[in-house]
Design brief:
By secondary structure, the chain is mainly alpha-helical. The protein has 6 helices and 3 strands.
């Protein structure tokens, strides 16, 4: 019985020493988590993003073959707004556009503007496929990916001059 107690005590001491040397290594990693990005507030304000978005919308309307079919526009806007209602960090109103383009694509730009190519609309097998692409583009806006990219470019610009 004494031998069993001794074995248990030795095992407990060894386990304590082992864990005692390993746990601090795990604690140190909490201080070195990777940076997940900036808020992008130092480069562009939301108001500036809205102004840039308005400028690009004017460019889009002047150069892209927008589809103005009332039923399609209503459908795209309705689906988009349903998705936006579930998004986090919505700081701007959203606008959805459909352009006549045979490439399956979509893009988002400043000020809550999302553009879908008609091929994406035409070749989606169901609403869920279309919605997943739209949700992806909405997340680019809510996460301010363009503003962050501009901030990164501004921060890294001196490196490109070397």
């Amino acid at each position: 019985m004494f031998r069993q107690l001794k074995k248990t005590l030795v095992a407990t001491v060894i386990a304590s020493l082992t864990l005692g040397s390993i746990l601090p290594a795990f604690a140190d990693t909490a201080d070195t988590l990777p940076d997940m990005g900036t808020s992008a507030g130092s480069t562009l304000s939301i108001g500036q993003e809205m102004q840039m978005g308005d400028y690009y919308v004017r460019q889009l309307r002047g150069s892209a073959p927008l589809i103005n079919d009332p039923l399609l526009v209503q459908y795209i806007n309705g689906l988009g707004m349903r998705l936006v209602s579930h998004a986090n960090s919505v700081r701007t109103p959203f606008h959805f556009y459909l352009i006549n383009n045979d490439q399956i694509n979509a893009f988002a730009f400043f000020g809550g503007n999302v553009v879908l190519h008609s091929a994406l609309f035409r070749y989606s097998d169901n609403e869920s496929e279309l919605a997943s692409v739209m949700a992806h583009e909405i997340s680019h806006v809510t996460q301010r990916h363009l503003a962050r990219a501009m901030e990164d470019q501004k921060r890294n610009a001196p490196l490109t001059w070397v």
